[in-house]
Amino acid sequence: MKIFIAEQAGVTRDRVQSILRSSDQHQIVGTADTGTKTVSMVRHIKPDVLILDDTLAETGGLQVAQQVSKLPLPPAVILLTGYLEHLVNNALLPTEACLLKPVKQHQLISALDKVCRINQGHIRGLMTRKQSAPRDYVCARHGQDFKRIPIDQVIYFMARDKYVTVRYDEGEVLINDSIRELEAEFKRDFIRVHRNALISRSRFSTLSRRGDNGHWAILAPQGDTIQVSRRYLSKAYAFLRLGVSQRHLV
């Protein structure tokens, strides 16, 4: 996740950078200490998240938040404040989260997790309206941190209870997206084989018949298996019969 830090106080700015650098999931793409510079750089860099001091010089933090919210793809904003009333009135502010200074590590991580999910929903909304390209990652909670999983590393999505399990090259994580949303967004890269499962088109190598247990999709390279329901079986066979260049059509 690309993060821009706009903070007037050097001590706070250094503290935030130290927290972010403790995880390889965060990329600091710029810093600024004035409102004017922040708006200009955010417009050019297009970060995912703006961590924003509410007492910036020249243009205050709240004014900056209002200005960047009008950008074509605005960042999620985490406001840093020394005023308790801003915390109380957080729902009325043009921001996704508000933290009281001095910044605590667990609170900043929790806020980043929150805005990651908010931004995913916002991006999906923009894609629906503008028919833009899908994301190249999904965002998942990983312990007290969060992790971006590149789509080309995902083997399958499996709906379980209230969450979706993402099986990828390095393991498994849970996400809040629904199977229906994932299918709509990533239909060129994944094919549905069960009411609760999407599998990667590029990892789908063959089908295996297991007697009375039905048909199972075999996925490369680890050999993961996902049951294929009767409803989607003909579609799965049709997919395998096509050449690689045509498989996105099924």
From TrEMBL:
Matches recorded under SUPFAM superfamilies: CheY-like (SSF52172)
GO function terms (MF aspect): DNA binding; phosphorelay response regulator activity
Domain of life: Bacteria
Record has Thylakoid as a keyword: no
Annotated ranges, domain Response regulatory: 2-116
Domain HTH LytTR-type, first and last residues per copy: 149-242
List of residues that carry 4-aspartylphosphate: D53
Swiss-Prot/TrEMBL keywords: Phosphoprotein, Two-component regulatory system
Classification via PANTHER family: STAGE 0 SPORULATION PROTEIN A HOMOLOG, TRANSCRIPTIONAL REGULATOR-RELATED
Name used for this protein in its record: Two component transcriptional regulator, LytTR family
Organism: Ectothiorhodosinus mongolicus
Lineage: Bacteria, Pseudomonadati, Pseudomonadota, Gammaproteobacteria, Chromatiales
